[in-house]
Automatic annotation (TrEMBL):
<keyword id="KW-1134">Transmembrane beta strand</keyword>
<dbReference type="InterPro" id="IPR003423">
    <property type="entry name" value="OMP_efflux"/>
</dbReference>
<dbReference type="InterPro" id="IPR010131">
    <property type="entry name" value="MdtP/NodT-like"/>
</dbReference>
<keyword id="KW-0732">Signal</keyword>
<keyword id="KW-0175">Coiled coil</keyword>
<comment type="similarity">
    <text>Belongs to the outer membrane factor (OMF) (TC 1.B.17) family.</text>
</comment>
<dbReference type="Pfam" id="PF02321">
    <property type="entry name" value="OEP"/>
</dbReference>
<feature type="coiled-coil region">
    <location>
        <begin position="430"/>
        <end position="457"/>
    </location>
</feature>
<keyword id="KW-0449">Lipoprotein</keyword>
<keyword id="KW-0564">Palmitate</keyword>
<keyword id="KW-0472">Membrane</keyword>
<feature type="signal peptide">
    <location>
        <begin position="1"/>
        <end position="27"/>
    </location>
</feature>
<protein>
    <submittedName>
        <fullName>Efflux transporter outer membrane subunit</fullName>
    </submittedName>
</protein>
<keyword id="KW-0812">Transmembrane</keyword>
Amino acid sequence: MTSLTQPLRTAFAPLLAALVLAGCATAPQIDPAALPTAPAAFKEGDGRWTQAVPPTVQADGAWWKTFSDPVLDGLVERALERNNSIQIAAARLAQARALLQATDAQRAPQIGIGADATRQGGAITPAGGGAGNLFRAGASFSWELDVFGRLSQASQAAALDADSREALLRNTRLLVQADVARSYLALRALDAERALVRETVGAYRDTLTLTERRFEAGDIAELDVARVRTELAATESDALALDRRRAEVEHALAVLVGDPASNFGLEAGEWTTVLPVIPAGVPSTVLTRRPDIDAARQSMLAAQARVGVAQAAWFPDIALTGSGGYASTDLGDLFKWSARSWGIGALLSLPIFDGGRREAGVRNASAELDAALAGYREQVLVAFKDVEDQLSALRLLADQSEAQSRAVASASRATVLSDVRYRSGLVSQLDLLDARRSELRNRREALQVRAAQYQATVALVRALGGGWGAVDDGKRAEGPARVHAGG
């Protein structure tokens, strides 16, 4: 009994030693100190950012509905259905899921059937050195035992890659939604500015008519007529420039909704879009809501799992194999019971010398983990910067809008007084033109400030991850606590 046991112990000693060392193949833990932490509150946050929003908006995630503009709602819905960037991101997600399925398949038993016919010669043939035929048909079985966690960690990495692609798809949808909203709001701002400039053109034309009459009557010099004509032509040029800018924005909007620019058109309309107040909430929600941060986190965890895969390359591959079927030198006897054959076995393979390939693989995977960790930290820092940027922009724009409103009121009053005094001959035409230029400039600046408020509001929603308030999306990834991927 002892003589039989001793050879078995000797044969399985390397396998037992490998099993003892299997724990070394687990992925390294990520130091929580290396992960960014959310600040307690936004620096720019104050009471103005706590206004509640309709609960239906939070329920379906349609944040753009807070602007209460049916045209915007329709454009966003069209973009979500037809935008090419979203379709590309969806295809990338499908690829990642297919790769995950293929990776998981490596952990399952492999069963196949086959048949072959060969003609061979030599001393081992039944013909005693002559040529002979050999026919075989049967099934084969193989199953790699994932003793050291290489296959499970590869599947985990592939699953995390798929999660990252899913987060990138959500991020692409958010970017497209934001781009559509910003383009549409820019279009409406241009419509309002164009209407203002064209109204000013009409006023200049009336002034030119009056000036020409006074010139014909000999009350003023030709210089006054030339000045009004100059102002009229310059303002008409501004109107045409606004037309050009509107056409460019409209064409960009066509691409976003998946239409050819030649077939897309949006009629000039009144700017009645509501300017909502978006509550910033607490910074920690940004880490769980923003899809780009979610994607960076999943990529970091995937890189962590791949370090374990690279470490597992140092351990043996163990597989169970089996085969069964028929083999015969005569095709007619192939499926007779006497021609049956079978075999079972176990395979253990371990490279001894590979020129440093496995060591280089571990170093490469570790470097990828370091890069992914740094990328995640950078993404978090940029996210908080984005929110702070837009909060400060909205705060300052609100003050600027108030100041600009006062400037518009004063400029409008100055124009009215100058027009009355000019018609009475108390001031020169130059004074009237200066007053009108000042009013036009201030009104346009007021529109531009208003447009900037809308743009900053959309950018804030995008910086917050497309929502606000409590996180209630069950599909959101877990927080930074998921930093260890076991083997």
